[in-house]
C-alpha cells in the first residue's frame, strides 16, 4: 500500500463519525467531478477539524480540487494554509504535498522562479525523510517547470529521475504526469513521434486510473501533435477533449480546449469561428481566475482583429494581454504583445489614404493624420489635405466631381 494511502487510512480511523461521513462525501464528489460540492464539503471539514494532521491533509485535498476547478487563487490560499500548519507542528508528508501543490499554482500563474523554489523545498524534505512518492512528485514538478522555461535538457533529466522512482514504487498517477510533461519536452524539440508516444502512455495510465481530467488533457496534447500535419485530425481530438471536460465540469480544461479549437479555425481562415472560440476561452478562464489562459485567449482575439485589419481592436487586445502577463510576471509573453503593438503602429502610420471624387476634389490623409466625422462635427488632426469641392453635412463628407468615390492605400516612401 502506498505511503499516502496508509496515512489516509490512519487519519480516517481517528476522525469521528460525522467527519468521516463528510470526508467520504467530499471524496465522492471529487471523483464524480462535482467540484463545487467537493470544495464546499472539504471547506466545511477544514472549519470543523482541530487535529493538525487531519487539517493539513484536508487542506491539500481542497487545494487539489480548487486547482481542478480552475480557482487558482483559492488553491494558493489552501496550500499556503497547509504549509503554515505543517511547519508549525513539523508534519513532513503533508508539507511536501502542500509545497508541490503550491509549485503547481505558481506554474499556472506564470511564476517559474517561485514554482521552482516550492518544488526544491519539497524535494529537500522528501529526500531527508526518504519519502519516495514525495521525491517523485517534486522531481516531476521541477522537470515541468524547466520545460516551462524552455530548459529542455534539465527538464528531461528531472523527469527521467521522477519516472524511475514512480515506476519502482508502482505510482501510476505520477508516471502519467511524468509522461505527459516529457511529451511536452519532445514537442518543444519538434520530435512529434516521441511526443505522441509519451502522450499515449500518459493517456493509457490516466484511463486505468479513470482520471477523465487527465484523459482530456492528453487528448488536447495529442491534438497539438497533429495540428500542423493534419488539422482536421487535431480538431477532432480537441473537440473530444472539450466534450469530456464539459461533461466533468472542468472549466479550466474547457478554456484550454476552446483556445486550441480557435487556433485551428484561424489557420483555416475562418476568423469568425476562431474569434468565437478565443472569446469563450477568455471568458471561461476569467470565471475560474486562470489568468494566463485568459491572457492567451485575449491575445489571440487580437490576432484575429489584426487579420481583419481592425487594428484598434487588435491593439486593445494586445494591451490587455500585455498588462495581464506583466502582472503575473510573464514578462517575455508581455514583450511579444508589446512588439506586436509597435509593429501595427509602424505599419499603419506609414500609410496614406486618398478619398477622391474625381477631378480635383478629394481628401488625402497622410501618415499621422486623422479625420473624424461624427455627431459633434468634424475633427481634423495632423497630416490631412482637403482639395476642391468638399463639404461636410449632417455627419457626412460630400465630395464633388464626376468620378466615383474610391479609397486607395499606398505605402509612403521612407
UniProtKB/TrEMBL annotation:
User: Is Isomerase there in the keyword field?
Assistant: no
Swiss-Prot/TrEMBL TPR repeat ranges:
96-129, 136-169
Q: Which Pfam families match?
A: TPR_12
Q: Which UniProt keywords apply?
A: TPR repeat
Q: What is this protein called?
A: Tetratricopeptide repeat protein
